[in-house]
Design a protein that fits this description.
Length: about 400
């Protein structure tokens, strides 16, 4: 059977909720609280003891820009797609999407329903074609060329819901989001990064759409690894000492696909924002990673959670990175790379303002890449903090 192609959508007029915002203004997105009794009942599956919080707790997201196949219908537009559970928060493997962000009435959609109940603690990584729900952190990304969610690797996670056994984290799983009903939202397994053995050291996937590849640093001993999405194959080289700057832990990471750099906040606290940088088009070169300091505005520390759980995204419209501290504030800080990428980068004046507070019970968990830039016609930053709160949106000017 021939599969119909998916066409990129044309930009339309901004929706009313977006047009009503002033630049630098936050808003609660409509119909965006996940933890409502009606939607939890509709998703079904086999929830864990803390579902639906687990779909976000210790899990990341991917911004899909072309649309998703949901409830038997292809819905065009921009969606934030969620997969992953962690810390015994659930094991149902639901894939959910919020959007279209570029429409007047976005809402929650079921992309792939919960899988049947089974004992994940004894079965390894997959069963019946489903990947096991897991700590996703920053490992989920949207494959732009193929309109797929890619769940790359994982942190070794307690996903059983009742004990502390672990599953094999070295997996690559891909889910078509909008090809056709023919696919029936089936996961495609592999290729798995078999050489990334031992303890997972970095919970990040640096996806560069212009290189059609994703990159990570993982394993014990650590290796740099490249996933070629066209060839569906992995390549490896030994890691270098400087690569530790690219381990975001529970923080966020971002990619500038023009300069071909992956960026994250490092663990080191010198009073200034300090970043780890990876030159992805030279991913295997000995000198491809380094640490860079910043000058200008000093974003505030966020207590015990700084800098591990801060987030960063790339603003492709204004060629800058945007940094969120995970502190008790609602500001985002622009970070402008230097020309040579190694002299200090510049942190500019903060964007945004007060108007909401993070749910106190979730400050101990990162937001990861659930903090992400959104393109025209809704240029801004979208952030899904936790399942009990509305999805937040900051309009950029």
């Amino acid at each position: 059977m021939t599969r119909p192609s998916v066409l990129a959508i044309a930009l339309g007029a901004p929706p009313g909720w977006y047009a009503a915002l002033a630049p630098g203004e936050w808003t609660d997105m409509p119909h965006s609280v996940l933890a409502t009794p009606a939607f939890v009942a509709e998703v079904g599956g086999f929830p864990g003891k803390a579902w639906p919080s687990g779909i976000m707790h210790y899990s990341g997201a991917a911004l899909a820009r072309r649309g998703v196949w949901a409830r038997g219908t292809f819905v065009a537009g921009i969606f934030l797609v969620f997969f992953g559970h962690g810390h015994a928060a659930g094991w149902g493997n639901e894939v959910l999407a919020y959007g279209p962000l570029d429409r007047a009435r976005p809402g929650w959609h079921i992309i792939s329903p919960g899988s049947p109940a089974w004992d994940h603690t004894t079965l390894g990584g997959r069963r019946e074609g489903y990947p096991i729900g897991r700590h996703a952190y920053n490992t989920n990304f949207w494959d732009r060329s193929r309109n797929r969610l890619v769940a790359l690797l994982a942190c070794a996670a307690n996903v059983g819901g009742h004990d502390s056994k672990y599953v094999d984290p070295r997996l690559t799983d891909q889910l078509p989001l909008g090809v056709s009903a023919y696919d029936k939202n089936r996961w495609i397994s592999g290729p798995d990064p078999t050489e990334l053995t031992g303890v997972v050291t970095s919970a990040a996937a640096y996806y560069d759409p212009s290189l059609d590849a994703a990159f990570t640093i993982n394993g014990t001993p650590a290796k740099r690894a490249k996933l070629d999405l066209a060839k569906q194959s992995w390549s490896y080289v030994p890691a270098q000492a400087a690569d530790k700057a690219l381990y975001p832990g529970e923080g966020g990471c971002a990619v500038d696909p023009t300069r071909h750099i992956g960026v994250t906040r490092t663990y080191y606290d010198t009073g200034h924002l300090t970043l780890g940088v990876w030159k992805l088009d030279r991913w295997d070169a000995v000198d491809a990673t380094w640490e860079v300091s910043t000058e200008g505005v000093r974003p505030p520390k966020s207590g015990a959670y700084d800098p591990v759980r801060s987030s960063i995204t790339y603003d492709e419209s204004k060629d800058r990175f945007l940094y969120w501290t995970n502190a008790d504030e609602e500001y985002v800080y622009p970070v402008i790379p230097s020309q040579d990428l190694k002299t200090p980068w510049t942190v500019g004046d903060r964007i945004g303002g007060r108007g909401w507070k993070r749910h106190n019970g979730y400050r101990s968990a990162g937001v990861y890449n659930r903090f992400t830039f959104t393109p025209q016609p809704v240029e801004g930053v979208v952030m899904a903090i936790d399942a009990e709160s509305a999805v937040k949106f900051l309009k950029l000017g």
